[in-house]
Write a structure and sequence with these properties.
Number of domains: 4
Distance between the termini: 41 Å
Order of helices and strands: EHEEEEEEEHEHHEEEEEEEEHE
Radius of gyration: 21 Å
Shape: flat
Largest sheet: 5 strands, antiparallel
Number of strands: 18
Helix content: 10-25%
Length: 268
Amino acid sequence: MKFKVGDRIRIRKWSDMEKEFGLNEFGSIACLNAFTSNMKHLCGRTGTLTLVDDKIVRIDFDDNSGGVFWSYSTDMIEPAKPETIVIYQKNDTVVAKNTATGEKAVAKCHPDDEFDFKIGAGVAFDRLMGREVEKPKFLEKFEPGKTYVFRKELHDARLPQSPYCDEIDGKIVKVTCIDGGVIDDYLIDVHWCEEVKEEPKKVEYFNGKAVCINKNGYPSLTVGKIYEFKDGRSKYDDGLELPCSARAKNIENLNSYFCGNGFIEVVE
C-alpha cells in the first residue's frame, strides 16, 4: 500500500507482524526495519506520517510515545480507521471491545488480588491492541559471593531508553552496596541487573569496513562511501553514532537497521 505525508496511521499488532514476517535471531520482527521487543508498547498507537522515503517513514505519534532511536518502515503500519473501544466490567473481569470489528480482550482479576477497574481496563486495552508485554522480574538486593550483569531490557522497563545502555549491556557489575554498583563511570541500580548463573560469554561486535549501497532514507549516509566500524559502531556523515540504537554484532545485524540491504562488508 502507498503512504504519503499527512496520512493517519496505526502501528500493527505484534502478533500480525510476527505471523507475516517471523522473528530474527534477536527476537525482533523481521520486517524491513526490525521491530524490536522494546517497541512492542507502540502496537495499536496512532500518529501522522511526517516523512515518506520509499519504504522508510517518520511518525509523529499522538501521545509522543515513539523512541528517538527507533526507525519505522511501511510494513509496520496500517491506515488508522475511526474506531470505538468500549471497556466494561463483568463480575471480576474487565472486557475491552472494538465495536467496529467485534474483537474482544479480557483481564480477569486473580482471586488473591483486590479488584481494580482501572488496572483491569489498562490490561484489557493493551491486550486488545496487541501490545501486552510480560512484566520482568526485578532483583531487590545483591548477595555476597554472586556475580551480576547489567541488562538493558530491565533498565528500559523502568526508565526511558539511554544510549549508554547498549555499551554496557551484559557487562559485569562491580557491587558497591546492597542495592547498587558501578560499570566504568556509570552508577548501576540493582533493579537493572540479573544474577549470572554461569560465566557470561563475551559479546563480539563487528570490526571492519563496510561500503554503503543504499541510504534507505537516511540523509547522513553516502552511497559508495566506505565506513570503518570498531566494536560495532562507526559514524554517520554528521558525526552521530552509526547505528545509533545499538552496536552491530556482524554485517547482517548492521543491515537489520537498514531494511536488510544498506551495507556490504569490505574484505581486504
